[in-house]
Amino acid sequence: MPGIKSLRVGKIVIGGKQPAFILGPCVIESEKFVWRMAEAIAKICAAEKVDFIFKASYDKANRTSVNSFRGIGPREGCDILAAIGRELKIPTTTDVHSPDEAEMAGEKIDLLQIPAFLCRQTDLLRAVAETGRPINVKKGQFLAPWDVKNIASKLSAFGSNQFCFTERGTTFGYNNLVADMRSLFWIREQGYPVIFDATHSVQRPAGGGDITSGDGELAPILARAAMAAGCDGIFMEVHENPGRARSDAAVQVPLKNLPKHLRMLKAIHAAVS
Predict the structure, then answer these.
(1) How many angstroms separate the CA atoms of 173 and 69, rounded?
(2) pLDDT tens digit string along 190-235?
(3) For the whole model, what pTM was predicted?
(4) For helices 219-229 and 258-272, angle between their N-to-C axes, nearest 10 degrees
(5) What is the pLDDT of residues 19-33, one digit of tens each?
């Protein structure tokens, strides 16, 4: 296996000796909400001696229904996340959906995320690469793990060598995904750091008719399996009250359970590294 091309996001190294964690709610439901979540997660991570990247989306542009809550918008969302990063001294990440959004977010956000459905959009990849920011590409549910080399080639051609991939499940029939732990090995085998998205991997896309359902209780289990399989970090959406979440209510991990999950994941990483 070739050496992993690690990338640095603030003081966090993805592909380094310690596991990386990307934690936060699915979407910015309000300014007060996202500040409350950031402060709570930061407190927990400090107690557990875990560095993390705070995640929250300003816009969920691929909701199942036109009536679903999307977020508060890119400009306000980026301003809030930038303020959280400055105040709490933590790196932040969010999705970008267009070249214009990439340019705007690139001025304020530490790690730019390419949504899974947009992972092959050449103009978006170019725009994100041109910001000079580190990039996290969600592997599309429709892609084989070895196909990420084509995305990597595009990013390299556009001048970026600071990127990683996130495995978030593969389409398995209708309204279902499967998390194939072999994917983590095959992506790393190509030399790219790989994060495992525990919450989106247990989705059942559009499984509720006009909403996405899922098996949230399985997210921590798959996170443990992925850590044992040798991934470079875990992406996990966390909410203070998942049942009342305005997006991905079925799969977000309860905030109160985060400490025990972090302890377990750290222990597994220590055992296999």
Answers:
(1) 27
(2) 999 999 999 999 999 887 887 778 899 999 999 999 999 999 999 9
(3) 0.96
(4) 20
(5) 999 999 999 999 999
